[in-house]
């Protein structure tokens, strides 16, 4: 198990140029033939943001649950990382089954495929980060006391989140080869995870009995940490960092172990 | 001695059958044992390869032949490392390129150029290496400007050409080819073959799967015949191909064979052994292969109890001939009942089944009246005009409407000896000669006085020495030395 997690990481480093080439293929191919092209990387999350802002910030606004201003800026800091995580997991899950022809016909390190899904979506997320920056600056200019120097710690949270997402993607990809059901199951779990994470509401405003449930969601730690750094301008406590690190480690070890255990049989089962 | 490029022993590969609902069990087995088939019974798995053992030396070219589902592609995939063997040992020494499905990993939406880089990376080439070889790759694929277009607009031929080109430019030590040349056009196939020959000439190793026997014959040192996942034949290319084709023909023959009388069987296997008893007997599968007997069909109303080839003026039984010899195809036919409708026929083919020449008594205008006892029929050719090579002979006795009494495919085989003096290509080789003479008197006074025929062509006829150089060449090619009658070379 432990050897597998080191081997997997080492393999990804060794094949980084292939990884990067395939990420570029994903990025190039995704919007090829569309008029707006790469702008969709920005437009997609913005449109989603607009929908959520309107629904939860206007129609379903409950000031007892959401006591943050400006709501739209708060939403950005939780929603954008969530989009990265959820699309990474969905694409990572199908990364092997979708490339079945390739796996059966070409000899190459299969483990790059889930990694490509995660990395390509990370690039989309990073490209959309300026929007977050603009939103934060706009919020401050409008006189809200949000954000601060703490944003410089964002890469640390993202790094831990990346490890968690990658681990889950490896596990899901390998399982999906054997059970296509995993993909549908995942779609529903992600909906659950979205609403059980403090993205459209704040954890502190929840009644305690609900807050305890929400805290069981691994995404909660990462979401609150990101919001702390970006929106509230405060440092997450040491316990928060420890929990995130633990989640990342467990996810990677489990994902790498499962993937390497199943990798021998992938070409046949896919 | 260097280790073999590929060494396999006791190789087995089992696949699970997916029709049943054992997904949970296969997952459990995959997790616990790293195998998909661990927890499955014999009815739930398919054994694609059974106890396959062979070695391929460095620089050797081995062809794999066999019917569909015989395990050829599985074997290639095991060697390529795409699949792990279920059991057995497999050692592969050298950098492998597997041309299994060309262009696997091409993305339809992006240009050929970008796909070259991606495909190259998938095949293990560094970006710098691809950049260095990029022009070669594009030129070899012969796509021209099209390289900038998205792959989705490529024809299947263009797709495969680009895929082959990238794969071959990875400079493999061991090249694995699985029936990928079928898609390209003639010109590209020739280019690929030339490239494969280069690979071999450079000391590379080749393992190729193909249903094109001519291809295997042309490029392989040895052939392996897989049948039902087992090695049925492994050895010299020609011998294995022949054995395989015999077996295919035999299987086809069986379908025609239902009504055959059992009495024919004994004679057939005896004759089968005779057919392979000439000097090159080792190259011809023997009756022990079981193919000979079932290469015949017919109602049995008449039976060809013997067929032989008589050569030369003395009519001795011989299967190694020289060009231009007199030959006679002799059939001994016994009718089982009185027949008023019968035709005797002989057909000469190449081992690959191309008809060279055939005739029968009906075509020749003989009208049958009665056949009531054993006869010896001879088809006599004063001079055999077939080019050097191997030939097979079908013999038959049948009704005028074509219903076979006894049809024997490949009843005989013979070779026409190779000889450099015969310099020709093709199957048919008539007696011929080159003649040339000046077509007009040359005008002008710069020729020496008294020379009535000025020199306009100067060459040496074959066999002429320098001093005998004649301005006018008259060269008999087929007969060897100029003017030598061909039948004098009969027994050389």
H/E element sequence of chain B: EHEEHEEHHHEHEHEEHHEEEEEEEEEEEE
Major β-sheet of chain A, in short? Answer: none
Question: How many angstroms separate the termini of chain B?
Answer: 41 Å
Main sheet of chain B: which strands, in order across?
A: 5-6-7-3-8-9
Net shape of chain A: globular
SS strand fraction of chain A: under 5%
Helix content of chain A: over 70%
Structural class of chain B: alpha+beta
Low-confidence stretches of chain B: 256-293, 468-492
Output the keywords.
heterodimer; A: 270 residues; mainly alpha; globular; B: 492 residues; alpha+beta; six-stranded mixed sheet; 9 helices; 21 strands; 23% helix; disordered C terminus
Written account of the structure:
- The complex is a heterodimer of chains A (about 270) and B (about 500).
- With about 270 residues, chain A is mainly alpha-helical.
- Chain A has helices at about 1-15, 15-30, 40-60, 70-100, 100-105, 110-140, 155-180, 180-195, 210-215, 220-230, 240-270.
- In chain A, helix 10 (about 220-230) crosses helix 11 (about 240-270).
- The two termini of chain A are about 25 Å apart.
- The mean pLDDT of chain A is about 90.
- By secondary structure, chain B is an alpha+beta fold.
- Chain B has 9 helices and 21 strands.
- Chain B has helices at about 25-35, 70-80, 110-120, 125-140, 155-170, 185-200, 215-220, 235-255, 265-275, and strands at about 5-15, 45-55, 60-65, 85-90, 95-100, 175-180, 205-210, 220-225, 230-235, 295, 300-310, 315, 320, 325-335, 345-350, 355-360, 375-380, 390-400, 405-415, 435, 475.
- Helices cover about 25% and strands about 25% of the residues of chain B.
- Chain B starts with 5 loop residues before the first strand and ends in a 16-residue tail after the last strand.
- Classes of the chains: A mainly alpha (about 270), B alpha+beta (about 500).
- At the A-B interface, helix 2, helix 5 and helix 11 of A face helix 1 and helix 3 of B.
